[in-house]
Write a structure and sequence with these properties.
CATH topology: Glutaredoxin
Oligomer: single chain
Number of strands: 7
Helix content: 25-40%
Largest sheet: 5 strands, mixed
Shape: globular
Number of domains: 1
Radius of gyration: 17 Å
CATH superfamily: Glutaredoxin
Order of helices and strands: HEEEHEHEHEEH
Amino acid sequence: MFRILVGGAAASLVFAPLAALAVPQPGHAPPALSLPAASGKKPVSLDALKGKPVYVNFFASWCGPCNVEAPSIAKLRSQYGTRMRFVGVDELDGDGQGVAFEKKYNDPYDLVAVDNSGKVGRDYGTTIFMPIHVFIDRHGVVKTYRMGEMNPAEIEAAIKDALK
């Protein structure tokens, strides 16, 4: 009996992380995203961006890799921003930190949403890793999903794929 309980407990530890990885999958629609805008203007929503490719980047001012990537994202936005929306989601940060991050890094996003509760971020995997990158094509389908830091060439390749 003890062996069955220990085996069952071990199995639950092995499979528990799999449940936590219920994140956006390439080839499928992303989870709903509707959050207040950092600017206080109307909410940022993926539904409102239908028909246009979207790059969603979950970031935080306290996230080291997020700070490393931001200048590259700003540069790529200046190059691809007319063909794709760049959405930053400020995840579990202090009031005003998303706006300060935007200014510090020369506006890497054309829309910034605030996820103070972390609820939307959980649907995208931020409880596992930060930053999170989601590239969505004009049909509303996830083309690339990535946890962790991406270099500029990787981000650009994912942008180009979403623009196809």
